[in-house]
Amino acid sequence: MADVFAKCRLPATYQFVKDLGVYPYYQAIEERSAGAEVMIDGRVLVQAGSNDYLGLSGDERVKEAAVAATRRLGTGGGGSRLSNGSLALHEELEARLAVFLGRAAVMVTSAGYLANLALGALVGPADTVIGDRLIHACLIDAVRLGGARLRRYRHNDMGHLERLLDAGDPGAGRLIVTEGMFSTSGSVCDLPGIARLARVHGARVVMDSAHDVGLLGPSGRGAAEQHGLEDAVDVQTMTFSKALGTLGGAVAGPEEIITYLRHYARSMVFTAALSPGCAAAALAALGIVAAEPERRRRLRASAERLSGELAALGYAVAPSDRPVMAVPVGDDLLCFRLWRELFDEGVFTTAMVAPGVPPGQALIRVSVTAAHTEAQLDRIASAFAAAGRRLRLAPVT
Question: Are strands 149-153 and 347-348 parallel, antiparallel or unpaired?
Fold first, then answer.
């Protein structure tokens, strides 16, 4: 008789990497400063892998808002939003987000992953979802949950997207899914191309703005605002765990769609409500995003500087003002070794291998935040220079 747990074995390479001392995951952070530093095993390192892009998780105003709400309302809601967990605080946050995003309605969820899983209620077995090759795992899971057929187009390849749309059943419902700014590379979606093809083929468009809300666009509303094509996006999702510095997520769109999701999205109906502290923190952070655009300007300047320095060292990084930088390595073990070299130099990055990226395309993900100082950016660049020399990855000495 087969044992259902027999498959639950890690590959032999897991122990090999652990024995080499280059295993990069589940590093326990003991302390986190309001700036961009963390303590691990008693060592202080520059945090260069965080999604806390605007540095708001350590902002005193955000922390105090969370503490005050927790004291007033407790640490949890006691139930789902549908049953008994809804708070006036949730509704205030939804109203504020709707105004900020310029959407008719917003539904707040307990996590960004759950916001995207809610999209599963919008599709069924008769529908086709066409997603960018690099969309996040939670978007793929949403399609599986809804039972729709998933087709993938090459990253930002509008020719390939057009061919998939042309080849599809014209009678089927079609949904194009993209991220606004992609989490692994920092690239921005080709929304003009997507919008044009959606109009021609009668497809709906969903944009996951987890990494671009708060950063892109004149007001920080994300990639759609940056492109000047907010009306081309039918439904927009976001998380609070990036630019807003806390936990939670949201789905924004037409009133009838959001009302439908409130009653039929399993990740909304069957999960506990967002905690009062996180809801209050998101509200406070949202106010800071709107009132302090200089944070975005500082972030863009820092990103442009560091990406330029990494490119000058010989790494295949395209200089840009986006905060996410993918440093290609290719081989998994070499990627782990580079991560360890950087760690030993006092810089904490993120090593990404399959399935987080396609097989054979391992990379080091570096992210800049508004909290990084000039001295910390120097440390990151110096660490890459030293590690690159030792591993013969960077030709410049």
Answer: unpaired
pLDDT digit string, tens, across residues 62-105 = 999 999 999 999 999 899 999 999 999 999 999 999 999 999 99
Query: Is there a contact between 279 and 108 (Cβ–Cβ < 8 Å)?
Result: yes
Query: Domain residue spans in the chain?
Result: 7-47+293-391, 60-291
- The SS3 call for residue 190 is coil
Give the chain's mean pLDDT.
Answer: 96
Query: What proportions of the chain, in percent to the nearest 5, are helix, strand and coil?
Result: 45, 20, 35
With H, G, I as helix, E, B as strand and everything else as coil, classify residue 251.
Answer: strand
Give the C-alpha separation, 217 to 240, whole Å. 17
Span 191-246, pLDDT tens digits: 999 999 999 999 999 999 999 999 999 999 999 999 999 999 999 999 999 999 99
Catalytic residues: 183, 211, 242
Crossing angle of helices 332-344 and 374-391, rounded to 10°? 130
Class of the CATH-defined domain 60-291: alpha beta
The second-level CATH assignment, the architecture, of 7-47+293-391 is Alpha-Beta Complex (3.90)
The reported pTM is 0.95
Using N-to-C axis directions, what is the helix angle for 276-291 and 88-101, rounded to 10°? 30
Token pair, residue 352, equals 């990404």
